[in-house]
Design goal:
This protein has 186 residues and is mainly α. The chain has 7 helices and 5 strands, in the order H-E-H-E-H-E-H-E-H-E-H-H. It folds into 2 domains: 107 residues, 3-Layer(aba) Sandwich (Rossmann fold); 54 residues. Helices cover 53% and strands 10% of the residues. The chain is elongated, with a radius of gyration of 22 Å.
Length: 186
């Protein structure tokens, strides 16, 4: 078990993320690990490597969006099947090649950080689309009605692009470390 596993899983559960331990280990072993991780975790144990893919497909059929974290050859089919496959950088070449996201460190906290970063990125994309739509809703009719000069229209277009670029650049500052070393989201 990774040293930061209990802390990371606890924070994910606080955010309403359902955590499932999918393991080839015996049920008793997997349940003991789940208890060490804070309990309240669904355990699916004694799963053969080829069946992990099937379990992921069943979860998806039940309407769940599934992120699979793995690092072994036996995780590769499940990483491909999952909505988001996350390989730990310390894993095998096969798992790394099969994943959508490869975390370059073995810290599970990076999984949580990647999830927050992806949510922030999607929010920024939506904001940027909004900026572009507002620009077009205002400036195109004004230009068509000859209310603004071609020079103003020409100058305002790059300003709109700069607003989108500036908004996107804010993502870099999103994950500044708190005093306890845990990344935060503004």
């Amino acid at each position: 078990m990774r040293p930061d596993a209990a802390r990371v899983i606890g924070r994910m559960r606080e955010r309403g993320i359902r955590v499932t331990l999918l393991s080839g280990d015996r049920r008793e072993t997997a349940e003991a690990i789940a208890v060490q991780l804070g309990g309240g975790i669904e355990v699916i144990a004694e799963v053969m490597p080829e069946d992990k893919d099937r379990v992921i497909a069943e979860l998806q059929r039940d309407g769940h969006r599934v992120a699979m974290v793995g690092d072994g050859v036996n995780d590769a089919p499940a990483l491909v099947r999952a909505d988001v496959g996350i390989a730990m950088g310390s894993g095998t070449d096969v798992s790394i090649a099969s994943a959508d996201i490869v975390l370059m460190s073995g810290e599970l906290g990076r999984v949580e950080e990647a999830a927050r970063l992806s949510r922030r990125t999607l929010r920024t994309i939506r904001q940027n689309i909004g900026i572009s739509v507002v620009y077009n809703l205002i400036m195109v009719p004004l230009a068509m009605a000859a209310v603004i000069t071609p020079l103003i229209a020409a100058v305002s277009m790059p300003l709109s692009s700069l607003a989108v670029i500036g908004n996107s650049a804010r993502i870099r500052g999103v994950f500044k470390a708190r005093d306890d070393g845990v990344p935060r989201e503004p």
